[in-house]
Amino acid sequence: MKYKITVFTPTYNRLNLLKRLYQSLLAQTEKAFEWIIIDDESTDGTDNWIDTVISNSPFPIKYEKQKHGGKHRAINKGVVISDCEYFFIVDSDDWLPDNAIEIVLSWIGELGDSKKIAAVAGICINPNNQTIGGVGKLENNKYVEVNNLKRYCNHLMGDKAEVYKTDLLRKFPFPEYEDEYFVTERLIWDRIADAGYTIRWYNTPIYIAEYQAGGLSNSGANQTEGHLNNYNGYLEFIKQSIKIMDPLEAVSYFREYNKVACLKKKSLRVRANEIGLNTAYYCYYLCLKMPIYYIGRIILKIRLRLQEMNMLL
C-alpha cells in the first residue's frame, strides 16, 4: 500500500468545480494520496478533461463512470477500488486547504494500532474562513474522542470532515434500493458508532465547503420531498434512529417520518409496523413524546433568549 489516503469525489456535471478541487490537490504539501472520481454520467466533458490530466498528475487518479445512481452508490464503488487505508470524501464543489493531507496524516500517525477508532475528523470552513457548525470540547486541548451518536453532546454540530478507515466502509456499505438515488450518510456513520467505534474530532480546518444551489445540501434530497422519493432508504434510517439515537433526537426524526408516512397515506398500523413499533407504542410517541419534545424545544429557546438578554445587560 503505497498511499495512505484516498481522496474520493463523486461528481455529476461539475467540471469547472472539479478543476478547482484538482488545483487544491496539486497544492497539497503532502501528496501521499490517490484521487478516485466516480462520475454519475456527466455530459459536460468531465471524461475528456480527466484524460488530459491523468498522465501528468503527481498523484494517481482513478476515474470510473456509473449509471445514474447517486452519491451512496458512488461511495460503495469507491471503497471497493480504493488501495488506501483511509477514505476522505471530498465533494466536487468543495476543496482542501494546502496542508489538509499533511494534517490528516499526522493525526493518523498518532492513532497507533487502535482498532476502535473509525476515523479522524477536522472542521469545515466556508470560503470566508468561517467555521461551519460548532467546535468540540477538546480533551487536553487537542481532540475529543466520541462516536457519531454522541457528537452533538460535545458541541460538534454541523458538517465535519471525517476521514474513515476504508475497511470499515467496506464492512458497512450503503443500502442500494432500486429507483432510489439518495441515502443519508448518517445512516452509516451512526451504524458504525453503534458497533462501538469512535472518532477523534479536532478543531483544525481541513475542508473548505461551498454549498451550491444544485448540490445535495440544497436539493431537498434530505427533506420531505426527498424522503418521499427515496422512501426505503429513509425508512431504514428512521428504524435505526429510533433504536440507537438519543431519545430526544429520535423523536425529532419520528416527527418527520410521521409527516412523510401521512403524505404517502399510510395507516396508523402500517406506519407503526414499518418502523418496528407496535401500534400502542407508536401512539405513545405521537401523543406523549412529541408534545414533550415540542415543550422542551420551547423551554430551550426561552433559556437561550434569556441568556442573550443577560449578556446584553
Automatic annotation (TrEMBL):
<protein>
    <submittedName>
        <fullName>Glycosyl transferase family 2</fullName>
    </submittedName>
</protein>
<dbReference type="InterPro" id="IPR029044">
    <property type="entry name" value="Nucleotide-diphossugar_trans"/>
</dbReference>
<dbReference type="GO" id="GO:0016758">
    <property type="term" value="F:hexosyltransferase activity"/>
</dbReference>
<dbReference type="InterPro" id="IPR001173">
    <property type="entry name" value="Glyco_trans_2-like"/>
</dbReference>
<keyword id="KW-0808">Transferase</keyword>
<dbReference type="Pfam" id="PF00535">
    <property type="entry name" value="Glycos_transf_2"/>
</dbReference>
<feature type="domain" description="Glycosyltransferase 2-like">
    <location>
        <begin position="6"/>
        <end position="114"/>
    </location>
</feature>
